[in-house]
Amino acid sequence: MTVTQESATLPNGLTVEAAKAEAARAYELDRAHVFHSWSAQEEISPMTITAAQGSYVWDGDGNRLLDFSSQLVNTNIGHQHPKVVAAIAEQAAKLCTVAPQYANAARSEAARLIAERTPGELNKVFFTNGGADAVEHAVRMARLHTGRYKVLSRYRAYHGGTETAINLTGDPRRWPNDRGNAGVVHFNGPFLYRSSFYAETEEQESQRALEYLDKLIQMEGPTTIAAIILESIPGTAGIMVPPPGYIAGVREICSRHGIVFIADEVMAGFGRSGKWFSINHFDVVPDLMTFAKGVNSGYVPLGGVAISPEIYQTFAHRAYPGGLTYSGHPLACAAAVATINAMADEGMVENAATIGTEVLAPGLAELAGKHRSVGEVRGAGVFWAVELVADQQTREPLAPYGGSSPAMNAVVGACKAGGLLPFANYNRIHVVPPCNVTVEEAREGLAILDSALDVADQHTN
């Protein structure tokens, strides 16, 4: 880990000594007053981050860490991009806020730039404050459009923490919030490494998963189902890239039964997988598409729903019963405009694709061949997962589904000690740096991960 000298200055202008003092105060107040998400409050010791720049963050002790988590896989253009910081300041000086019923330049331009990049004719944009409420509104639109209620979503998926979104979620975070009354039916999606369909090839996995989904719809009643929601590439659940033909097959099933197909691009969108949206890998156009996170790199909270002409027409002369005080907030939309323009001008989406193909894919494959703790690596662009196992033959995970383990804690600790801030979930390390990560930074991260996997190897059979 890089330890900054006491006399050095951090990117935010603070000396390390001043940053340490600020961090100590921040930690004290955090522990006194802040209630953290997804946590047992008395069992956590949150890292304090005092500064960030590009692909790096600085912790409360002045240590620099390469951010291979992109925080929550949302800082797609890295930290403190000067064009976006300047755009936020400029917008704040001009118009800090305005109610959503009024048109404003930042929102209008953000909508235009997003619509230019969405697949098909998803040219209308409803803005939200983040991904979870984008999912909430997409489901509401689908239910009102179809007059149906049920929504199908897959296991091993995450759609957000609000009431409908958490019930749609297909991982253990749903369990304490699920009363079975949200109109949600879960199904198994394709994941060859841990196949639910006894498949031996990607082709079998895709075919059998589609047959299973079609039969499930027949048993549930096609005319009762409003929507199927899928992450185009599941993110937090494990970055399982759908096999060829699967997403197109789901699109065909939805079209055949009049079911709305919602693509969740909250984590997978805006360059993360090497394309503007991950659904573009599959040449499929959904009826609704949710987004957030990378739309403005998380600099100011923003999300939204891109809407097809057919669903737009449902509300052309009928009021849509939903809205938010901060829908299309000027500061957030100005950040989105600057982010999208910076990504386009600086070739960040293309860079993500190149880094994935030329650095991460071969580098992670090399680590998989070297370390007996690696069961599988998978992904695209700057969106990869390293599946860690205690036994390569049995595929026993290094941590149980829905939990952690001393072994995984040791691996995460080794990453941080080496100067890498990882994204860890259950038995996986996700390799998710910013879309504008450099070749040198990507290789630096892989080298640190290589050393950390030596620790993982010590916990294998």
TrEMBL record:
Keywords: Aminotransferase, Pyridoxal phosphate, Transferase. GO terms for molecular function: pyridoxal phosphate binding; transaminase activity. One of its GO terms (cellular component) is cytosol. The keyword Transferase applies. Belongs to the class-III pyridoxal-phosphate-dependent aminotransferase family. NCBIfam families: PRK06062.1 (NF004718). This is Aspartate aminotransferase family protein. It comes from Mycobacterium syngnathidarum.
